[in-house]
Amino acid sequence: MMKYDNDGLHENKKNQQLDHFRVDDTGKKLTTNQGLKVSEDEHSLKAGDRGPTLMEDFHFREKLTHFDHERIPERVVHARGFAAHGVFELYESMTPYTKAKFLQDPAVKTPVFVRFSTVAGSRGSGDTVRDVRGFSTKFYTEEGNYDLVGNNIPIFFIQDAIKFPDLVHSIKPEPHNEIPQAATAHDTFWDFVANNTESAHMVMWHMSDRAIPRSFRMMEGFGVHTFRFVNEEGRAHFVKFHWKPVLGIHSLVWDEAQKIAGKDPDFHRRDLWEAIEMGDYPEFEFGVQIIREEDEFMFDFDILDPTKIWPEEIVPVKIIGKMTLNRNVDNVFAETEQVAFHPGHVVPGIDFTNDPLLQGRLFSYTDTQLIRLGGPNFHELPINKAVCPIHNNQRDGYSRMAINKGPVSYHKNSMAHNDPSPATAEEGGYVHYEEKVEGRKVQRRSDSFKDHYSQAKLFWNSMSEVEKHHILQAFRFEVGKVKSPDIRQQVVDMFANVDSELARQIAIGVGANPPEGSTTESNVTETSPALSQMNTVKTAQTRKVALLVDNGFNADELNLILTALKEAGVHGEVISRHLGMIQSADGKNLQVDATFLTTDSVVYDAVYVAGGTESSASLSMLKEAKDFIADSYHHYKTIGAANEGVELLTAAGISTAEQTGAGVVIARTEEEVGSLSKEFIHAIAQHRHWARQV
Description:
Structural class: alpha+beta
Shape: globular
Number of domains: 3
């Protein structure tokens, strides 16, 4: 008897129908979606090796268009984000370099909207995954919106935008099983890396602590690409943009990041929201690196290569202003989700270069907004609307808000006296920088982009021993998750070109063969101290401390600590067995903020154990309290305890006699408690105590 499914179709017939749509690409030649065989898929069509990308490259445009429209409704990349409003203030006029009005007058305050994000995961993924972080800023200037669309890492994986879909496809969950979410620890990503060696430098950053920031408030931002400043005289300078966090650059440790993803997947967004609500407004200083046009070719790297930094020791960062985030959004969907950034949203005085990754982004972002926000009028959404008037001949389309009067919607015209008419440069009209361009139409990359390993080695050389250990462990974790022995070996062989000892240590951890004999290891010996987070600002301000307390605590001692923390700008939260009130040994009540069940040590920067015989005895018998202390210790955080509170440290397996200088601060007498608070706050400012690691 024939078997039918619920649709009334024979099972075999249904499978035959599906077979018509199944495609096997094995052994086939690459084609466009129209069936045209493609001869080149590495390089977009350019006017000369270092020239701009040409719009006639139909394969490039088709590939990017398809990629931009692959997901609805969330962003294909940077889907999980959080944002805030703020203000930008200039320190000094940049008139010698640019005519951009918001960079002219230090008295002018420019409104901004900033969106932070992860790249690889969906909207439902965790905040603390190992990933690049987006750092995009919309300046609402009197000349129109300017978007600085950047990341927390100053470079990128690829050199040409035509490879962006390939990169992201390799990072995303593998299509046959949709695993893993928001992670690069899988075969397709590392297969891409091993076969696209231009990614070497970025992978070093990605394996570093920069990929697991402590907070959006404690990470750098970069424009990534090389742009141009153009002044009133038409003179141009090459420029790179930087955001420097006033609180310094700090990261999580990997075990901590993984645990936070389970305990509080909203950790970064909660941190930003709460900081602004408490008045701890995040601040970032704005810096620029500037190179004269005549000096374009004086470096041993191509300044247009998006996989290269300009080392700060060679091209210093000039700090020119500060951004303060001082207001949370009112509605995440209306603002954070509907904000539309685009590196092509510029103002007079800021222009582009022939960086081939930037050139592709200038096409891709508008194309993406069309599918995400339902048509060409996304600029009329409140969060995207410019603060200056809008006048043009564009009409209609999905979600049109403006009600334009009159019959004219074209240029040139006589019926409306040619209004709106183009503005001259003197009237503020945008004039593209006149750059000489010549060369054959080619699908190649400049030879000056071929060095893939020197700056990866510079980054490695610049790391402290602690940071190098973290990078090695990241490689071992990520590549150790790769199923294919061949891909693991390719990765080891690739990074032998960066540092042979690094490659050997990776090989040991992932079961691959170490490099043998002579290698082509980079011979770079220089360092760049600016690349190491060990050289960052250290402050205890805005840090969070868990105070472990139970009935019978010493109220005078705890009040002394709480007062000192508040004066230092540190936030203390009381953690106990249950919510409500607990009582001190002398009968004073204290409100509990969280319990051992509702919070965890990983969401705090430090922990303090209050004294008191009854309190200490109770906590020392509680497994959750001992685990709280042990986790903090193993994540290298500051731990403080006074008098009887020291007993909990001992119960958690911490030998207090061996912790001098390792971030464990104790007071065993009433006289020592007075100096403990100052030492405790100083220790918190160090962020972590790496002496425990070695």
